[in-house]
TrEMBL record:
PANTHER family: PKSB (PTHR24322), RETINOL DEHYDROGENASE 10 (PTHR24322:SF736). It comes from Conidiobolus coronatus (strain ATCC 28846 / CBS 209.66 / NRRL 28638). The lineage of its organism: Eukaryota, Fungi, Fungi incertae sedis, Zoopagomycota, Entomophthoromycotina. GO terms for molecular function: oxidoreductase activity, acting on the CH-OH group of donors, NAD or NADP as acceptor. Belongs to the short-chain dehydrogenases/reductases (SDR) family. InterPro entries: NAD(P)-bd_dom_sf, SDR_fam. This is NAD(P)-binding protein.
């Protein structure tokens, strides 16, 4: 994939801008013969280090009190029943393989048959755009494998790139049914089993498009923004109404992945807006399930700033969009 801004930011974050860098420079200056403790540089270094450490500690303490962090123990997925939607290809395929290698029992849901066979991976054909199919499939999973402990709402769809006035009604309906309605229905009908077990984990795959919305992608962006809001409300529901249940959520906000879903989309800048490696993200999601905490992942690294762009007015955001040639993203896209 080549060197890009993601590598640069990670390097700087782990070196120059790491919380300990100010302390190291201070110790270096302290041992110099001309050390001046009242100098602006020394005060700045101590202030920078103090602020970084303070927010790091307070962030952890606050999250712990609110039940956002896990208990520090690795959540063992072995023998846990996992419902994985969109398991046939792409990110769902990768997560299924990784979780299976850790001993999980996986209900692999997809409208298309699986092209692989693994022990403890059971295929269930399911058209997630139809709520009645969702309810029926969950009942079949429970009857065959047992109640689900982990749910991964991974299935997603992108319809042909069109301005909204040219978007077919059936494509609007299908996009919202699969990308937004299906995760809500799966969560609604799987959650009672998790509450009964007093444990569970729900993963929702949204998108950075919820924050940065290219032209010709309006319905997809709306569906992912809706899923992001649903996940936040779900966290508050769990903490408010089921505080004694160890049920956590992970919200995934990726940019463009190197999977088939957006393979025809044009990436405006491979350096500034790098493509996220799907295998790396898959491993990251599995790690988050094992950490078992309420958490959000914005990736690649540039994704961490996208929520703050909403604080700027539309004029600035449009300027940024044009500067990055965002209008070209879906120019040559054709869905399958």
């Amino acid at each position: 994939m080549g060197f890009n801004s993601d590598h640069l930011v990670k390097f700087l974050g782990n070196t120059v801008f790491h919380w300990s860098s100010g302390l190291l420079v201070y110790l270096y200056l302290y041992n110099r013969p001309n050390f001046k403790p009242d100098s602006t540089l020394v005060k700045g270094l101590l202030g920078y280090t103090g602020v970084r450490v303070f927010f790091k500690i307070m962030g952890y303490i606050f999250s712990e009190r609110k039940g956002l962090h896990g208990n520090g123990l690795k959540y063992n997925v072995a023998n846990k029943v996992i419902i994985m939607t969109g398991a046939a290809t792409g990110l769902g395929n990768m997560m299924t393989h990784t979780l299976q290698s850790k001993g999980a029992i996986i209900a692999a849901l997809d409208i298309a048959p699986l092209k692989y066979k693994l022990d403890n991976v059971h295929y269930f054909q399911c058209d997630v755009s139809k709520p009645e199919n969702i309810v029926k499939t969950i009942e079949e999973v429970v009857a065959k494998l047992g109640p689900p402990t982990i749910l991964v709402n991974n299935a997603g769809v992108v319809r042909p790139a069109q301005p909204i006035d040219k978007f077919a009604d059936k494509d609007v309906d299908l996009t919202l049914r699969i990308n937004l309605d299906a995760p809500i229905y799966f969560t609604k009908h799987c959650l009672p089993y998790m509450i009964k077990q007093k444990e569970g984990h729900i993963v929702n795959i949204a998108s950075l498009a919820a924050h940065m919305s290219p032209s010709q992608l309006g319905v997809y962006c709306a569906s992912k923004a809706g899923l992001m809001s649903f996940n936040e409300s779900l966290v508050n529901d769990l903490l408010t109404h089921y505080p004694d249940c160890s049920i956590k959520t992970t919200l995934i906000m990726p940019g463009k992945l190197n999977t088939a879903l957006f393979q025809n989309a044009v990436n405006p800048s491979d350096f500034l807006i790098p493509v996220q490696d799907a295998k790396e993200l898959s491993d990251w999601i599995v790690k988050e399930i094992e950490l078992h905490r309420h958490h959000e992942i914005h990736c690649p690294t540039y994704g961490k700033i996208t929520p703050y762009l909403r604080d700027f007015n539309m004029t600035f955001r449009r300027f940024l969009h044009k500067s990055l040639d965002g209008d070209s993203f879906m120019a040559t896209f054709n869905s399958k």
